Fold this sequence. Notes:
By secondary structure, this protein is mostly beta strands. Helices cover about 15% and strands about 45% of the residues.
Amino acid sequence: MKIHKVGLRFAGASSLVLLASSFANAADPSTAKKDMMMPGMDHSSMDMSDMDHSSMDMSGMDHGSMDMSGMQGGKAPADARSPDYSNGVPYGRYGKPMMMGDMPLWGVSVDDLGYQFDDDQINYEVGAWYGLDERRLSLRSEGSVQTKGDKEIDSLTSLSYWKPLSIFWNGLAGVAYDTENDKPAIMAGIEGTAPYFIETDAMAYLYSDGQVRLDLGAEYEWRLSQHWVVIPEVGLTAFSKEDSDNHITKGFNEMEAEVRLTYETLSRQLAPYVGVSYETALGSARGQRRQHNESIDSSSLTAGVKFWF
Length: 309
């Protein structure tokens, strides 16, 4: 009976082995192939129940001496890949490729180059920049040139560092020079898109004599078609203190407004226009102009062109 009991015991173990083997074969076809190569082996005769695993001493094994660097997942050789990911292939005549955001770009825009018929003067507004999307060097100049008489030139030119402040707003800071006052200045300001797609800018200038000038501007593009665009714009100028030598009063001095009808051609890079401009003195500047026999307000037909590249 004792032998029969042992036989039942090994029969149960053999069943478990065969059951585990069937699951293993289903998961690993290589195991099934090995079992098919040994059909004569009797697994039921293997008795491992009396094996004493506690007698196996593995404390002296030096695991640190086991070199597994050649296995998958080990450390790659030093020359496995070139630092520039070219695999030793030359870049050719165009040089090493760059990400678009790392490539410095430049641009030039002439927002206004027009003639005012009643005032006999040419107005201009020119800008240029060089740099990346997150930082640029910006050069801007705007003013007017008299075509008759002494042909006086009044211009305000600035060189500034440009940087985005948010999705719709950019900041500028730099230096400027005003030929009308013949003084240098430190400038700072913001420009961007206000709600309803109104292009807005606010610039402050601190002159060497302590005078502070503030320029505010707003512009909107009313697109009639793919080519015809109506552009109304307005600008205000204010000063912090009076300067009688340059005909400046404290507070808001003047307001300029203009409406243009433009026709965009050449992929919208060239746009000739016609329009009407209006200028008026504000506050104390009105009385000062009367004292100097100067016109308080004026209007004029304008024609010109704007372009960029």
